[in-house]
Design a protein that fits this description.
alpha/beta; globular
Length: about 675
């Protein structure tokens, strides 16, 4: 996924209007040479002169584009609310009601805990461990992962079949290590989380004594102890453990998994549960069962009550919403004040990648106002060019055998692009939202989405479905050998119909190369042409690939974005490989486009090759709060933007040639890494 940490507008003023449509050449450094530090050359003066607003954890053109998209949505949503006659589809009716409820703070305050009271009452009614499976299932049916996360998706080894998957979840601290590490940061986060739990419990009228909080923290620490570290989750084989419910019960005794599965999947037809599940982390399930059998019911009730409150806190009255902001935004990311309310509501409606239940309905609203057929045509041409460049890369790889190359080319040819928006929109049958019940709407939408997922258990995999909404400023490589480029990112600075090819190939072209490469990164390479987990590599080819990947790990772990904190090369390996290979692929695609057009003149004094690299560096221009950067380095699989410029470019001979760099310059790696 191309989630960013992140990108740039032409000037600080652009961050509150519209993203830049041309290269901001006047902002480049007069003191730092391109061959010394290209990120500082392009972005240093902007970073030094830009102030972070109190309601932002970072600013850059990614954020400017997101704000612009949110503003378009906010205006459109407000119009839908004012003019019900414009609510002409089921999706538009749903988002109008949801948005109205989020903007109606008086109704939120007046409603108190009423939206979550049925769930709190169910938790309060737990009397013995035998009650836990039914209550945990009820929370799961509104997508509260406490402590097991569930979802329906294609079977990784047989993508024509959809299956229920179980994954570790349920921690309140950002990372498992935060429960045990003795660093100042871990201690500060533990104290902040404890205070957050105390505030939510007290505001809800529950016990929040020191002993109760001690027991809660010890309970979550036990869960954390069995939680697989983030970097290890990148191994798809380790996360693929098919079991029958009986086998799960044998593997993780102490919890009635069959009762839980029956209650979780109850939808009027599936009364017998499921015959087979994929367990992501068996050791975690063992710990859950152990805690179910041995932990006092009072501790479980505290933990589950907190999970219910935490899930809805941002949508509840001020005592809960303020506690949520102070913990998640102020403490973890360093934010000083709330974002504008309409931006907060849109984020809560759609989620960070538009994958929330109403995300596609927001996309329906966005696309009708912001995406042209010409943009789709140009984007399709760019994808074809970048795929052709990747095809050439695979054919020319010296370390890969002919048999493995043939499989790689087969996979590339079968890759399915999704551009702009889906052809059809959800109809939201059975969902009815209330314009005066924000927290209740969240739970209704979650329950509806859960039931829709259960229906998928009876259907073949739908390869036309979008899991990222079209309004999102992002892109992704999906699990069925697909690549998705929403309308939200097909705009400046990534893509501009008025810009020259060099700018577009350095922007959206690199994004395309990045997403294509994800299907050939350390994790993606293990899946075949239909997206099934299937080893198509010879042992020698796999070993050669791993050797190159290990060099990428070492390179990124040498970077220290915050003093004392290096990039986690294993956690970020997939994204780093996709940057390291995606940029040269996009550059090669530009060369083919330039041959086709014959347009090689300088613009603003820069050659097309130079403009390609300048465009990409401007995309990564950003300024981020240190707290947010630290959280990213510990929990996010993406490297900070600066190193997404320095590492790929310094390992590209074409960069050195474009700017006449010499051996020994910082932007010229003595032994360039080439994964593809």
């Amino acid at each position: 996924m191309f989630r960013l940490a992140l990108l740039a507008a032409a000037a600080a003023a652009a961050l509150t209007t519209a993203p830049a449509q041309a290269l901001d050449v006047q902002s480049f450094s007069k003191e730092v040479a391109p061959c010394a530090d290209f990120y500082e050359y392009v972005n240093g003066p902007w970073v030094a002169s830009t102030q972070l607003p109190a309601d932002q954890t970072r600013i850059g053109s990614f954020d400017a584009l997101r704000v612009a998209n949110d503003r378009l949505l906010s205006d459109a949503l407000a119009e839908l609310v004012r003019k019900p006659e414009l609510q002409t589809t089921p999706g538009l009716r749903q988002v109008a009601a949801y948005f109205a409820s989020g903007m109606d703070r008086a109704s939120i305050d007046a409603g108190g805990l009423k939206p979550v009271k049925p769930l709190l009452d169910r938790v309060a009614g737990i009397k013995t461990p035998a009650d836990l499976p039914a209550v945990l299932a009820e929370l799961g049916r509104v997508q509260i992962s406490a402590p097991v996360g569930t979802f329906v998706r294609p079977d990784a080894k047989n993508t024509s079949v959809q299956v229920l998957s179980l994954m570790q979840s349920g921690l309140g601290l950002p990372d498992r290590d935060d429960y045990v590490k003795d660093t100042d940061l871990a201690k500060r986060l533990r104290a902040a989380y404890r205070l957050y739990a105390e505030r939510l419990l007290k505001a809800s009228g529950a016990d929040a004594s020191e002993k109760t909080l001690d027991d809660l923290m010890a309970f979550e620490a036990r869960l954390a102890d069995a939680t697989v570290p983030r970097a290890a989750l990148r191994d798809p084989l380790a996360s693929y453990n098919p079991m029958t419910p009986a086998q799960l019960a044998e593997k993780a005794p102490g919890f009635d998994w069959q009762v839980w599965l029956q209650a979780l999947t109850l939808n009027g037809k599936r009364t017998d549960g499921v015959e087979r599940v994929i367990v992501g982390q068996p050791g975690f399930m063992q710990r859950v069962a152990e805690l179910a059998a041995n932990t006092p019911v009072a501790t479980w009730k505290t933990y589950l009550r907190l999970r219910v409150l935490d899930n809805s806190a941002a949508r509840l009255p001020a005592a809960f919403a303020d506690a949520h902001f102070d913990y998640y935004d102020r403490t973890i990311t360093g934010l000083e004040q709330h974002k504008p309310r309409d931006q907060e509501v849109i984020m809560m409606m759609g989620g960070r990648t538009g994958g929330a239940p109403l995300g596609l309905a927001l996309g329906e609203l966005f696309v009708a106002r912001a995406f042209s057929p010409e943009a789709q045509r140009r984007a399709t041409l760019l994808i074809d060019d970048v795929k052709a460049a990747m095809r050439q890369k695979i054919q020319n790889v010296a370390w890969m055998s002919p048999d493995t190359k043939a499989k790689a080319l087969e996979k590339l040819a079968a890759m399915q692009p999704k551009i702009g928006a889906p052809a059809t929109w959800p109809q939201y049958d059975g969902l009815a939202l209330d314009a005066r019940d924000f927290a209740g709407n969240q739970l209704r939408a979650a329950a509806w989405a859960h039931q829709e997922q259960l229906k998928d258990l009876d259907r073949p995999s739908d390869r036309t479905r979008w899991t990222m909404s079209p309004y999102i400023v992002n892109a992704q490589a999906g699990g069925l050998n697909e690549i998705t480029f929403p309308a939200g990112i097909l705009q400046p600075p990534f893509f501009d119909a008025k810009a020259d090819d060099a700018v577009n190939y350095g922007g959206i072209g690199m994004v395309i190369g990045h997403e294509i490469t994800h299907h050939f990164d350390d994790r993606g390479r293990q899946f075949d042409s239909i997206g099934s987990l299937n080893d198509w590599w010879t042992p020698a080819d796999a070993a050669a690939y791993k050797a190159n990947a290990d060099r990428v790990v070492a390179l990124y772990e040498s970077y220290e974005p915050v003093k004392g904190t290096h990039i986690n090369g294993r956690l970020t390996l997939g994204e780093n490989i996709s940057d390291m290979a995606g940029m040269p692929i996009a550059f090669d695609a530009l060369q083919n486009a330039l041959k086709r057009s014959g347009q090689r003149e300088k613009i603003d004094g820069f050659t097309p090759e130079q403009r390609f690299f300048l465009s990409n560096a401007l995309v990564w221009r950003n300024k981020t709060r240190e707290a947010a950067l630290l959280n990213q380095l510990r929990t996010d699989p993406h490297s900070p933007g600066k190193y997404r410029v320095l590492a790929p470019m310094s390992n590209m001979p074409a960069f050195g040639q474009a700017f006449s760099c010499k051996a020994g310059d910082a932007m010229v790696a003595p032994h360039p890494i080439q994964v593809w």
